[in-house]
Automatic annotation (TrEMBL):
Residues 129-241 form the GFO/IDH/MocA-like oxidoreductase domain. This is Putative dehydrogenase. GO terms for molecular function: nucleotide binding; oxidoreductase activity. Keywords: Oxidoreductase. It comes from Deinococcus peraridilitoris (strain DSM 19664 / LMG 22246 / CIP 109416 / KR-200). The keyword Oxidoreductase applies.
Length: 318
């Protein structure tokens, strides 16, 4: 089922989603922008028919769904406004800045009978589906440890990811990926601990964390001031699975190794698969729709606990 989409803002990340919407059978009919010349340039580049205000986009009865790629602190208010206007919402990660906010958003979505989905596109890549299937099927035995990393150098400046008021920080931006993948494979942790390096304005430049399970330990690291690196490893009682390449950023190939076997997965637009999933959710049961919102709440609980642990220098139980 193809939907008619509106995009809130002309953010750089939206450039990935607009072609994906078309590939998934949808149509971007309008982009909202506070900066009309910038919005018009964006619309011209991507063949979008109209540039409107945020309020006009949400009031448009010809728009079924909204993509929200705004700075992190604007995810909650504009996603709520979109849901209350009768739109389905695909919101960039982190969907909100806390589990409490995510739960509020889930309640609004349920009341409006609309889908809200956190945009972790990477999970829809074929390589990720295969990796999760292998781990869950016992291909490496019982999992005993996971290790994930996502880092790149983000020049300091006016980028909202350096600004605490806008929900900046390495954990919200990139550390959330290995945390999310760990949860996909192992479920919810019992406790977490973390240590971070912070700017003078209290934004985490880097964070190293541990998620504790009954029979496994999972660790991850993320950084805004280390060379680009994306990798994930799962070790079990009967084998080892590793992922290297653009596994989280979804801009290139990914190498999957299962013990001595190796497979190279070429780039495939996971964003298109994600959009297709969201469009299918619209036609499913209310239970399926609420499960997608609940997943964001669960992710938020773990992120909350990791930040609390890093700031208070103690383990936090969930």
């Amino acid at each position: 089922m193809g939907l008619r989409w509106g995009v809130l803002g002309a953010a750089r990340i939206a450039q990935k989603l607009i072609p994906a919407i078309a590939q998934a059978g949808g149509q971007v009919t309008a982009v909202a922008s506070r900066d009309r010349p910038r919005g018009q340039a964006f619309a011209t580049t991507y063949g979008i028919g109209r540039v409107v205000s945020y309020e006009e986009l949400l009031a448009d009865p010809e728009i079924d769904a909204v993509y929200n790629p705004l700075p992190n602190d604007l995810h909650l208010p504009w996603s709520i406004s979109a849901l209350q206007a009768g739109k389905h919402v695909l919101c960039e990660k982190p969907m909100t800045l806390s589990a409490e906010q995510a739960a509020e958003l889930a309640r609004v979505a349920a009341h409006a009978n609309r889908v809200v989905f956190e945009a972790f596109a990477y999970q829809f890549a074929p390589v990720m589906a295969e990796a999760v299937r292998l781990v869950r099927s016992g291909a490496i035995g019982e999992v005993r440890s996971c290790r994930g990393t996502f880092s790149f150098v983000l020049p300091e400046g006016e980028d909202f990811r350096w600004q605490p008021a806008h929900g900046g920080g390495a954990l919200f931006d990139i550390g959330c990926y290995p945390v999310h993948l760990t949860r996909l494979m192992l479920g919810e942790p019992l406790a977490v601990s973390a240590q971070g390096r912070w700017t003078s304005s209290n934004v985490d430049i880097a964070l190293h964390g541990t998620l504790r399970y009954a029979q496994a330990l999972a660790s991850f690291q993320c950084s805004f001031d280390e060379v680009h690196h994306e990798a994930f490893e799962v070790v079990g009682t009967a084998g080892r699975l590793t992922l290297d390449g653009h596994l989280f950023s979804n801009v290139g190939e990914v190498r999957l190794r299962l013990n001595e076997q190796e497979q190279l997965f070429p780039y495939e637009n996971a964003y298109a698969r994600m959009v297709s999933h969201v469009q299918e959710l619209v036609t499913r049961s209310l239970e399926d729709q609420r499960t997608s919102a609940a997943a964001a709440v669960a992710q938020g609980r773990v992120i909350d606990a990791l930040l609390q642990s890093a700031r208070e220098q103690r383990a936090v139980r969930l």
